[in-house]
Amino acid sequence: MTAGNWIKWDKGLTRKREIVAISARLNLPRRIIACACMEFWEWTDSETTDGHLAGVTPLFVDELVALPGFAVALEEVDWLRSKDRGVTIPNWKRHNGESAKQRARNNRNQRQKRSLTPSVAINTPQLHGGRPLSPVCHRQTVTLAVTKR
After folding, report:
1. Element (H, E) at 32
2. pTM for this predicted structure
3. How much helix, strand and coil, in percent to the nearest 5, is found in the chain?
4. 141 falls in which pLDDT band (50, 70, 90)?
5. How far apart are CA 72 and CA 43, in angstroms?
6. R_g of the chain computed on alpha carbons
7. Fold category of 13-95 in CATH
8. Which of 7, 43, 67, 79 lies 20 to 30 Å (CA to CA) from residue 96?
């Protein structure tokens, strides 16, 4: 996967209130609406750097995802704004573009670092003062030394 060849999927997207509202408005399942949003956002990620899509109409947005009324439903939940000169995605940089992708990568890396359990860290070969850590557990003698104090 290349650096820019992906977009962020928010955990719980199919249960967000905006998806539920669009689903009710279009009388379609939430998963279909979430997939349509992802398809739309995937396309916009390739077409804009600031969230404005000059010359794009609500009708084109509907045709892009093959759902009549989709653009109007996006506008109703403030996920799209339509003007005479095109459409704009509010809060674009919060979720899209390179800075959002970098934040997502950083968050994923941090979660992975934090998920290491102590047992994994102990069993991972590491060096201490140039010597490998002992694979032998010293819990018994450490406990005795602490209790004798």
Report:
1. helix 30-47
2. 0.63
3. 55, 10, 35
4. low
5. 18
6. 25
7. Arc Repressor Mutant, subunit A (1.10.10)
8. 67
The pair phi, psi for residue 76, each rounded to 5°, is -65, -25
**pLDDT tens-digit map of 82-92:** 998 999 999 88
Number of DSSP helices (H) and strands (E) in the chain, helices first: 8, 5
Helix (H, G, I), strand (E, B) or coil at 30: helix
For residues 9 and 68, is the Cβ–Cβ distance under 8 A? no
97, with CB counted inside 10 A (0-12, 13-18, 19+), is middle
Q: Is 132 helix (H, G, I), strand (E, B) or coil?
A: strand
Crossing angle of helices 30-47 and 58-65, rounded to 10°? 120
Q: Is 16 exposed, middle or buried (0-12, 13-18, 19+ CB in 10 A)?
A: middle
Query: pLDDT (tens digit, 9 = 90+) per residue, 10-69?
Result: 789 999 999 999 999 999 999 999 999 999 998 998 898 889 999 999 999 999 999 999
Where do the structural domains in the chain lie, given as residue ranges?
Answer: 13-95
Determine the Cα–Cα distance for residues 149 and 142; give it in Å rounded to an integer.
11
